[in-house]
Amino acid sequence: MRFLHDRTPEADLTFDDVFMVPSRSDVSSRLGVDLTTTDGTGTTIPVVVANMTAVAGRRMAETVARRGGITVIPQDIPLEVVADVVSWVKQRHLIHDTPITLASTDTVGEALNLIAKRAHNAVIIVDGDRPVGVVTESDCADVDRYTGVDRVMSTDLLTFPESIDPEKAFNLLHESRRRLAPIVDNEGMLVGILTRTGALRSTLYRPAVDDLGRLRIAAAIGVNGDAAAKARMLVDAGVDLLVLDTAHGHQEKMIEAIAAIQSLDLGVPLCAGNIVSAAGVRDLINAGADIVKVGVGPGAMCTTRMMTGMGRPQFSAVLECATEARSMGRHVWADGGIRHPRDVALSLAAGASNVMIGSWFAGTHESPGDIHYDANGRAYKENFGMASTRAVVNRTADDEEPLEAARRSLFEEGISTGRIYLDDGRPGVEDLIDTIVAGLRSACTYAGARTIEEFHERAIVGVQTSSGYAEGRPLHNGW
After folding, report:
1. Are 77 and 134 within one domain?
2. Catalytic annotation on 302?
3. For helices 79-90 and 227-237, what crossing angle results, to 10°?
């Protein structure tokens, strides 16, 4: 990456402060761009779901890995629960989705409670394990919640075998004017669900899989306690990547924890952070980190900069840290401040190998929380920062004396409750991934790059005023 006119700015920059200049390109198609990462994570798109309790769970992990990214399970989840989540994700199919099921004796109210858990917007009604009907949200409209689902379900089912090719499935669904089909095994038992959009996506994305062909998943641990023992347990449970995470990563506890984990030679990449300086990168890599996580303060739920004055504008932080990591043969992730696809592209242009996204994904069907509705009927999910009182209390409840836990709860650097509204047009995490990948592929064609590494090499970045940024924003309702 170089700055326009080769003028390195004196001030640190946020994503909003910069733009990229198109270059002469021979990349004629977005589909000619390969977004596979090279940092050892096994991701085929540069998307990592942040280890936030309100964002990262089993549904998120399954869905994102199927499209090529990876999800980091938070460190405040009990290890036995993490092991169960990892095992569950490893058993998921690479093409079809996990169905939501009810018996024909269940009610419309139960169906409505479950439909919002998955973006495919359907519940499969089963007799034992055999599909006999399907219920969608529209089937339940203006129906008493105590009505049996057998009264509203559609019984005209089109089913597909497990082995069906995604392209063939798409064509059959398109020809029959159907949105989805249950997937059944050789004996007609339900094993999955495939939508027309899901089949289409399977022709465009490659799943992130381990050496055994199973979906990948990561998990986070903190620096307190016996981090090495926790790391061993997580790897034994099947985790593909470890994230050693604390708000201030450039500290002695972090360096000691990295060295202790790497001494075990667990055979999986270790990401550590967060830091925002070249010195932090050097210290964490010299301690043994394979990847360094960059970002202090840019997250939507983070109050660190307002509380402490500490942090750094994210674009400049990623640029400096990535430059240092690359000189040492290692990698960085950009963590925080991602609000638009352009921010992902700018992070990669600055040298990041992957981009971590948290709050943006909180407002999707796949995040762990339940859907709520405001006074105007708009759907939202609750979100909170991982340095907030709410998160800290949950994380330390079993590890500390009551007095120490109470003291800790007085000091927070995050928002304990916020609303992230679901986008009516893009309510699923796959919808957001489509948007991100489309923008990133297009950015690569503008730069004349076929890979992420070529994109970093060819990117030309300029500095703009706030008016320049405003000029680039669409005006949906005129001016």
Report:
1. no
2. yes
3. 30
pLDDT of residue 405: 66
What are the Cα distances from residue 77, in Å, to 17, 97, 176, 390? 37, 24, 44, 14
Cα separation, 393 vs 387, in Å, equals 10
User: Looking at residue 457, which CATH number applies to its domain?
Assistant: 3.20.20.70
Which residues lie below 8 Å from residue 358, measured CB to CB, with a gap of 6+? Answer: 49, 50, 52, 55, 299, 300, 301, 336
Claim: this prediction has a pTM higher than 0.70:
yes
Do 228 and 139 reside in the same domain of the chain? no
- Contact in structure between 139 and 115 (CB atoms under 8 Å): no
Contact (CB, 8 A) for 449 and 35: no
- Encode pLDDT of 249-276 as tens digits: 999 999 999 999 999 999 999 999 999 9
The answer to whether 431 and 388 have CB atoms below 8 angstroms apart is: no
Residue 133's CATH number: 3.10.580.10
Q: What is the pLDDT of residues 87-101, one digit of tens each?
A: 999 999 999 999 999
Give the SS3 label for residue 381: strand
Catalytic one of 140, 271, 302, 444: 302
CA 461, chain centre distance (Å) = 26
The continuous run of DSSP H or E covering 467 comes out as helix 466-471
